[in-house]
Amino acid sequence: MTRDPTAIAALEFEEEFVTGLRTIFEEKIVFNRVLGLQVVSLLPQRVTGRIAMKPELVGHYLFNRVHGGVISAGLDAMGGLAVMAAVGERHLAEPPAQRLQRFGKLGTIDLRIDYLRPAIGEHFVLHAEVLRLGSRVASTRMEFLGPDGKLLASAAGAYIIS
User: Fold this and answer.
1) What is the DSSP string of 67-81?
2) What percent of the chain has pLDDT over 90?
3) What residues does the Thioesterase domain cover (predicted)?
4) What is the DSSP code string of 119-162?
């Protein structure tokens, strides 16, 4: 099926779906809440998040640098959010509440992180997009950026969709 790229760019989710997905992602997933991971933008083709620096995110031996585990967890979470957005787009004919019920069985099956530079800054931006959404597996690409927009880490992930 060929799609008009301008139609994809113009598509936005209903406020009920965005609010519900944001609540699941920022509040109900406890680890995301601990990280302080917030949704900045939620579009079917690309999601953006933000993490503000706080003392809990710094490794004890990495003075003022975000710990690699935080970077990995943030990228993994954003990959999952991108899959949720893509699944939400796939089932647009369903009411928002019904689409939100689909995310209970989403899980990571593979994750690769490339750490490119030290993560030093007051906040960080994360982007994720789905490269392929199959019936059971989704492939994603993610980025972890510094406050100046420099790429600090990149990732690729695969997620199971049940």
Assistant:
1) -HHHHHHHHHHHHHH
2) 62
3) 64-151
4) --SSEEEEEEEEEEE-SSEEEEEEEEE-TTS-EEEEEEEEEE--
| CA 106 vs CA 2, 87, 131: distances in Å | 27, 11, 17
Q: Is the pLDDT of residue 142 over 70?
A: yes
Q: Please name each of the domains of the chain with its CATH number.
A: 5-160 (3.10.129.10)
Query: Distance between CA 144 and CA 142 in Å, rounded?
Result: 7
Which residues have a Cβ under 8 Å from the Cβ of 4 and sit 6 or more positions away?
A: none
pLDDT in tens, 23-32: 999 999 898 9
CB 58 within 8 A of CB 67: yes
pLDDT tens by residue, 90-111? 999 999 989 888 877 789 999 9
End-to-end Cα, the chain, rounded Å: 23
Token pair recorded at residue 106: 């989403």
Q: How far is the C-alpha of 152 from the C-alpha of 124, rounded, in Å?
A: 9
122 vs 156 pLDDT, higher one: 156
| Global confidence as pTM | 0.86
Bridge partners (DSSP) of residue 41 are: 48
